[in-house]
Amino acid sequence: MSAFEDLMAYVGETTALGQIAGRLGWDQETVMPRGAAAQRGAEMAAIESVLHERRSSARIGEWLEQAEAPDAAGAAQLREIRRAYDRANKVPAALAKKIAQVTSEAQGKWAAARADEDVAAFLPVLEEVVALKREEGAALANGGTLYDAMLDDYEPGMTGAEIAALFDAMRPRLVDLRAAVLAKPAPTGVVGSFDEKVQMRLTRKLARTFGYDMNRGRVDKAVHPFSSGSGSDVRITTRTNPTDPFNCIYSTIHETGHACYEQGIDPVYAMTPLGQGVSMGVHESQSRIYENQLGRSRAFTGWLFGEMTEVFGSFGIETADAFYAAVNRVHNGYIRTEADEVQYNLHIMLRFDLERALMSGDLQVSELEAAWNDRFKADFGYAVDKPSHGCLQDVHWSVGLFGYFPTYSLGNVYAGCLNKALRKAVPGLDDQLAAGDTLGATGWLRENLQRHGGLYLPREVIERACGAPVSEAPLLDYLDAKFGAIYGL
After folding, report:
1. What is the pLDDT of residue 365?
2. Which of 15, 39, 179, 457 is found 20 to 30 A from 385 (Cα to Cα)?
3. Domain boundaries, the chain
4. Strand, helix or coil at 386?
């Protein structure tokens, strides 16, 4: 075998082990007994130790020196392997193992603290996570900006300064739109009790409607919805609320976008570095366009209104137009995952600034709750009422995902660009969506973006699909037009 073939075989085995680690994470957040948390931490630490040893092995360096790419895809494989190898060798093995153990345990402590509304119970382990991630970030930065090194793990090539500039450009129009909308009467919302088992049956149907292959996946419940896996085993989770069916419906459509990206990647890339989404920003572009530009469109909500009426009966909304307004109702709220499209990015901006301050040391963990509450009051105009609506609402920091939050807004920006191109490419799209047929949209996304996996760099794959540079303008124009029409602005 050639050096390239030897390298790909070795990386394939490492990828398989990484998939096993991911399955342990899925189990932990869905069905694992609470009392198993400490043992699971030890298990995760053990497998991370093996993974780190393989990812940093000197054999990879030797193969990289000798390997010759057979084609453009092979060159992209070598690019991604080299990037991962360089990163692994910057992080000491003992540190990688410790982070895996502590974040596994911290996830359980976060869930318990969230349920008990007890910030003090969570802060000690969060302080440990932050210290470990600062240490990791310093190793990765190698004298550069610590936060940029962490962001690069989720959105290669992006910097904190670029994100800050993007947010500065977006904030004025978002704030102005929010003020104009909230000055208008709010649409009527749904009323009644919605059986949670029926919600789960409907939500599985919606996942299939958007192209999710249930033969290679499953839908379960978790505290915080997520998607896990790639290739032939891609799982999603959602959550239910008996008084708010939209929570379940749109969490599921969102995670279906993630899962369909993974399921849509060319099978030839399976179990290789190209066999997964190229970045979290691009991943979020898929979840957000599925959820919002498609799932919350007037056309699709007309079909969904019929589906909900069939399974739930009357729920306080009598027409498809009123249902569309209810689905897109702009309203005060604390929870990022339940935020409307107008305000969602403002939630991300808050988290971005706080986690940058945590990583730089400008904000101490002991000050986080007060800093969150002060910033929320300043940004949204009302006070946080309880910790699960404040700094305990998201799982990300407990599991060490610093640098992840801004990719949600990047995903929204990318989705705005993709939606503009999609509408031009599929002129009859609304007629299809009104019939509950998403294939025109999801097929275009699969062909123009999803199938490539990690072949192209993040910005490159978006610009190739759209035929235009990435810009926040399409997203902001879409929001102005959509909510201007709904609210008569």
Report:
1. 97
2. 179
3. 3-144, 160-487
4. coil
Token pair of 187 as six digits: 């649409």
What span, in angstroms and rounded, lies between the C-alpha atoms of 84 and 68? Answer: 18
Half-sphere CA count of 142, side-chain side, radius 13 A: 8
| Backbone phi and psi for residue 273, each to the nearest 5 degrees, phi listed first | -60, -25
Q: What is the pLDDT of residues 388-401, one digit of tens each?
A: 999 999 999 999 99
CB 258 within 8 A of CB 407: no
Q: And the tokens for 41?
A: 């931490």
Task: Give the alpha-carbon dihedral of 268, 272, 274, 276, to 10 degrees.
Answer: 100
Residue 82: closest CA among 339, 321, 279, 273: 273
Question: Given the structure tokens 């599991």, which residue do they identify?
Answer: 399
Average pLDDT on 215-219 reads 96
The residue annotated as part of the active site, out of 155, 255, 262, 284, is 255
Q: What is this structure's pTM?
A: 0.93
Here the contacts of 458-467 (C-beta below 8 Å, separation 24 or greater) are: 458/155, 458/156, 458/157, 458/158, 458/278, 458/279, 458/281, 458/282, 459/157, 461/278, 461/282, 462/282, 462/285, 462/414, 462/417, 462/418, 465/418, 465/421, 466/417, 466/418, 466/420, 466/421, 467/421
Candidates 87, 164, 130, 159; CA nearest to 360 is 130
Q: What is the DSSP letter of 389?
A: G
- For the structural domain made of 160-487, what CATH number should be given? 1.10.1370.30
255 is catalytic: yes
- What CA–CA distance (Å, rounded) separates 255 from 286? 9
